[in-house]
Design brief:
Blueprint (H helix, E strand, L loop, with lengths): L3 H6 L9 H4 L14 E13 L4 E3 L4 E2 L3 E17 L7 E4 L2 E2 L4 H15 L5 E7 L9 H16 L6 H11 L11 E4 L12 E5 L7 E6 L9 H11 L3 H21 L2 H20 L10 H15 L4 E4 L6 E5 L4 H9 L6 E5 L6 E2 L8
Helix pairs in contact: 3-4, 3-5, 4-5, 7-8
Length: 365
């Protein structure tokens, strides 16, 4: 059963199929900010140059840099309430007391309390408007929203770079969701992780693109990303080649974004996605995140591009296919992917902004 808090936060699910219907978030987050209470919203991101592998598991330091885009239609909103009477933090996700991931939430909040010299525990209520743990970066938006809300609730006033560093400790990809548009995550070199943070490359409005997502499975993936990365790093004979090649891919993507070169971005993004999944398959035992529908969607996208449609694919650790395309091609791409057997839902998004908190009287658009 949904808790009373979840019922209060709950919105209709009809906004899942387009960013227009995901629409203004003003009606979702219009309670006032006050010390000890805060709420924030953050958006999922999809990596074009992929992140896979950690150089330090405790601090969640990546073995490779990555480049991503934020998605305006896939979001997490998080509300926090500090309560001195609590003996431990509580965490609800989509109206259910959450055991999966609650340890990471508490560990991150403990770090943030230490920064502010507080020992007060908190109630955390989060809601995703898209499937959780299914390869759609729910942990990225989730931890970005969490650190943004916690920063405000505990009155820390941290910089965006520091929030990116903290979000990374919760989920490697969450560091990128602090910022909007096109974002690069630095691998970093320092052992304390202070230089392993995300930085914005370009705003969403600088180069608007559309994203069409083909959903073929809504459940949690059988092997999570953290476990998958560890297995790959420990057992794949090709892992070192993956790490060594990443700087070249990052440079190609960086240049493509700066020059608005769609074809160049398409080539490096597809190569990075296929390399990631080839690497995962080479682990022992191999990791199979694709399903038959995934493969058919990739073929369909390649066919569209062969016909002159400006579109390319990427796939994270899961079966869902993301088609990045010119805005004028979105209808064509959505229709083609909807027709693929096994596709159960189509989500559409534009490029989104960074994580933000709610101020008194602030209007959301």
């Amino acid at each position: 059963m949904l808790t009373d808090e979840a019922k209060r936060m709950r919105t209709t699910r009809n906004d899942r199929t387009s960013h227009e219907r995901a629409g203004p978030v003003a009606n979702l987050m219009n309670t006032q900010y006050s010390p000890g209470r805060a709420q924030a919203i953050a958006y999922a991101n999809v990596a074009l140059v992929k992140y896979w592998g950690k150089r330090d598991a405790d601090l969640n330091l990546p073995d490779v840099g990555s480049i991503s885009i934020a998605l305006d239609a896939l979001w997490t909103r998080t509300r926090m309430e500090l309560d001195p009477a609590l003996e431990r933090d509580s965490f609800e996700l989509d109206g259910q007391i959450e055991a999966h991931g609650s340890g990471r939430v508490t560990a991150l909040l403990t770090r943030m309390r230490a920064i502010g010299g507080s020992e007060i525990r908190s109630r955390v209520f989060s809601q995703n408007n898209f499937p959780t743990g299914a390869g759609l970066a729910s942990s990225a938006s989730g931890f970005a929203a969490l650190v943004t809300a916690a920063d405000r609730a505990y009155g820390l006033g941290l910089s965006l770079s520091r929030l990116s560093e903290l979000a990374r400790i919760g989920s490697g990809s969450a560091a990128r969701s602090i910022f909007g548009g096109y974002v690069e995550m630095h691998r970093g070199e320092l052992p304390d992780g202070s230089d392993s943070v995300a930085v914005p490359l370009a705003a969403a409005a600088d180069w608007p693109l559309a994203v069409v997502i083909a959903i073929s499975e809504r459940g949690r993936k059988s092997v999570g990303s953290t476990e998958g990365m560890q297995r790959t790093a420990q057992t794949s004979p090709f892992y070192s080649a993956w790490v060594n090649n990443q700087p070249d891919d990052l440079a190609l993507a960086r240049t493509a974004i700066a020059t608005r070169d769609f074809d160049a971005l398409a080539h490096v993004s597809e190569a990075s996605a296929l390399a990631l999944h080839g690497l995962a398959m080479s682990a022992r035992p191999g990791l199979l995140y694709f399903n038959a529908t995934t493969m058919e969607c990739l073929h369909r996208i390649r066919h569209l591009r062969g016909r002159g449609v400006a579109v390319f694919f990427t796939v994270d650790a899961g079966p869902q296919v993301k088609a990045i395309c010119a805005p004028e091609a979105a209808d064509t791409v959505a229709a083609a992917l909807k027709d693929v057997p096994g596709v159960t839902e189509i989500l559409r998004a534009g490029l989104g902004g960074g994580a933000v908190g709610m101020d008194d009287g602030q209007t959301w658009t």
